Amino acid sequence: MYRLNLGLVNFSRTCYRLGQIELAHHIHSIVDTIGIIHSKYDFNQFLNDLSKSGRIDEARQLFDKMPERDGFSWNTMIAAYANSGRLTEARTTFRLHSK
C-alpha cells in the first residue's frame, strides 16, 4: 500500500508541476476517497500543491482533515490565504496557530 501511496503522491505532484492541474486534482480526489494519505509528509505535499494551484478552499478542507499539523502545514495555509488576498483568513489561521 505504501508504494501505491508514494506513487500516486509523486504522480500528482508531477502533474501539478507540469500544469496538468485537473489531472492532479482528479488523482488527489481518488487518493482522498480511498484514504491512503497517512503520513504528515504526504498531507503536506498535497496541501502545498493545492494551495500553489489556487485551490485554497480545497487546501483548507485537507488541512482540516490532517490528523497532525506541523509548522509547514500552518505556514502553507497562512501563505495560501495571504497570497490569494484573503488576509482576514490568513490572520485568523495565524492566531489559531499561535494558541
From TrEMBL:
<dbReference type="InterPro" id="IPR002885">
    <property type="entry name" value="PPR_rpt"/>
</dbReference>
<feature type="repeat" description="PPR">
    <location>
        <begin position="39"/>
        <end position="69"/>
    </location>
</feature>
<dbReference type="GO" id="GO:0003723">
    <property type="term" value="F:RNA binding"/>
</dbReference>
<feature type="repeat" description="PPR">
    <location>
        <begin position="70"/>
        <end position="99"/>
    </location>
</feature>
<protein>
    <recommendedName>
        <fullName>Pentatricopeptide repeat-containing protein</fullName>
    </recommendedName>
</protein>
<dbReference type="InterPro" id="IPR011990">
    <property type="entry name" value="TPR-like_helical_dom_sf"/>
</dbReference>
<dbReference type="InterPro" id="IPR046960">
    <property type="entry name" value="PPR_At4g14850-like_plant"/>
</dbReference>
<keyword id="KW-0677">Repeat</keyword>
<dbReference type="GO" id="GO:0009451">
    <property type="term" value="P:RNA modification"/>
</dbReference>
<dbReference type="Pfam" id="PF01535">
    <property type="entry name" value="PPR"/>
</dbReference>
